[in-house]
Amino acid sequence: MDHLPIFLDVKDKKVIVDGGGTLAARRVERALDAGALVHVYAAELGGEFRELQNHPSLTHHTAAPQLPDFAGATVAYGATEDADRDRALYDMANHHHALANVADVTEYCDFITPSIIDRSPLVIAISSGGAAPIIARILRARIEAILPAAYGKLAAFSGRLRERVMAKLKAPESRRLFWENTIDGPVADMFLAGDAKAAKKQFLKELDATALGQDISKVGEVYLVGAGPGDPDLLTFRALHLMQRADVVLYDRLIGDGIINLVRRDAERIFVGKSPNDHTMDQQDISELMVKLAKDGKRVLRLKGGDPFIFGRGGEELETLAAANVPFQVIPGITAASGCASYAGIPLTHRDHAQSCVFVTAHGKDGVLSLDWETMARPGQTVAIYMGRSSLDFLMEEFIRRGVDPNTPAAIVDNGTRPNQQVIKGNLSNLYERAEAASLPGPALVIIGSVVELRDRLNWYKNYAADQHSMSLTARTKL
Predict the structure, then answer these.
(1) Which of 230, 232, 224 has the alpha carbon at shortest distance from 250?
(2) From the DSSP assignment, how many helices (H) and strands (E) are in the chain?
(3) Rounded Cα–Cα distance for residues 196 and 198 (Å)
(4) Disulfide-capable partner of 343 in 103, 121, 260, 461 (CB 3.0 to 4.6 Å)?
């Protein structure tokens, strides 16, 4: 270890920053966040200072810093990228025993500025000792993705209750086990879900029981999570977090390996996928299974393609959970219409083409097709049809029969957002034949409207996917 990792208290202490650009702004921002009295030296402050320059703890000096300015300073940052000025700052800071750090100049650094994940009061710092700052930044991004923003508030919540724990539990081992169960149990789940009042009530209940030597049965919960249309990169941070916490996962056929592999390794996995006329489990059986697992104390992840509240039957499942008094959370996902249209280069709305967009499903309850054709046939809008592949012939004919121009542009997006995405473009009169010729495996989304004409100009994903495939083949060849 080349550097001693410490967190320095600079509250109400003098910090000098020399420079007015982006590097200087980032250092000023961090110092102000830590409560420092910051003096920045620059003839002009760049645009990055727009939100900072009126801060009451910031003083701007237009001249370069001089030796007397460093008196009483705790830290001095050089961020001018001027070699002579940076060397002068280092020498003047050392003269007054202030810690100096000059950006990207190791010999002028008394300390390393790490990459920070700020969940105050929880703070994580990552450093490569200056050897590989890009690696530190990449690791920071990955940790940011899995660490919920509310963890800082959870740390503050726990801190406010520390004295009660100290008073109730005298043995250090008892306190350690209690805190472990709190941070990785129902209390944290309730708090992170936004119910601080219920979390505190559960916390005190568990604390009293632990002090009396009682064992409280775990309270199960269901996480209803939208996994998006297929690309794992479209998952939300919250979805990833709960995927790592779940004890058991119930997933649909639309969930690809790239997503299911992000679930906690030791979680039990139960496939409950449904396709037309082929149901692994009935909807009611799935809902009842979730109730049973939750009442057994399990954290149940119900993973659905797209968004659970847009043709995902999420509302039906939650009605069953609510009736059984099972706690649950809902995490939205990118719905198929939005994701597939974006990856196909087809904007759902456009001022010159469509001022509204209608989402419909070709499958009603029990498979009965019942659509509001009067609404769907209106001009100046886009119609996105979920699960329309199997009835595409009927749909196209019905639009024409309702008076819509047979030459109206239409497209079908198969396996949208995935590497094997296919987009078949045509119009109401020929889309079915073109889709049949392509033998699309599904799942597929149908898009109808003049916005489809924009695909040829806005089709970004085809080239992107090709580049990614080429990179993958090159990497395999090298291996």
Answers:
(1) 224
(2) 18, 19
(3) 6
(4) 461
Q: Is 214 helix (H, G, I), strand (E, B) or coil?
A: coil
Query: Is 430 strand, coil or helix?
Result: coil
Q: Which residue has the tokens 């003047």?
A: 92
Residues 6+ apart with CB under 8 A from 157: 191, 196, 199, 200
For residue 436, how many C-alpha atoms fall within 13 Å in the half-sphere facing its CB?
7
Q: Find the mean pLDDT for residues 409-420.
A: 94
- The C-alpha angle 405, 347, 436, rounded to 5 degrees, equals 55
Beta bridge partners of 298: none
pLDDT tens digits, residue range 217-237? 666 889 999 999 999 999 998
Distance CA 404, CA 423 (A): 22
Kindly report the average pLDDT of the chain as a whole number: 88
Q: What are phi and psi of 289, to 5 degrees?
A: -65, -40
Query: Is 252 one of the catalytic residues?
Result: yes
Q: Which of 274, 292, 295, 462 is catalytic?
A: 274
Q: What angle do CA 293, 296, 302 make, to 5 degrees?
A: 25
Tokens of 224: 């209803």
Residue 149 has a pLDDT of 77
What residues form DSSP beta bridges with 251?
271, 303
Please, which pLDDT band fits residue 368 given cuts at 50, 70 and 90? very low
How many of the other CB atoms lie within 10 Å of CB of 372?
Answer: 9
**Confidence label for 348 from pLDDT (cuts 50, 70 and 90):** very high
Omega cis (within 30) before 121 = yes
Decide if 364 contacts 372 (C-beta within 8 A).
no
Residue with tokens 């979920």: 386
3-class SS at 446? strand
Instruction: Give residue 84's identity as a one-letter amino acid code.
Output: D
Q: Is the dihedral of CA 131, 134, 137, 142 positive or negative?
A: negative
By residue count, the chain amounts to 479
Contact (Cβ atoms closer than 8 angstroms) between residue 331 and residue 403: no
Q: Is the pLDDT of residue 469 over 70?
A: no
List, for residues 15-54, the tens digit of each pLDDT value: 999 999 999 999 999 999 999 999 999 999 999 999 998 9
Q: Which of 189, 231, 247, 252 is catalytic?
A: 252
Among left, alpha and beta (phi > 0; psi -120 to 50; other), residue 172 is: alpha
Instruction: State the burial class of residue 120 (Cβ atoms within 10 Å of its Cβ: 0-12, 13-18, 19+).
Output: exposed
Q: What is the DSSP string of 323-376?
A: HTT--EEEE----HHHHHHHHHT--S-BTTTBSEEEEEES--GGG-----HHHH
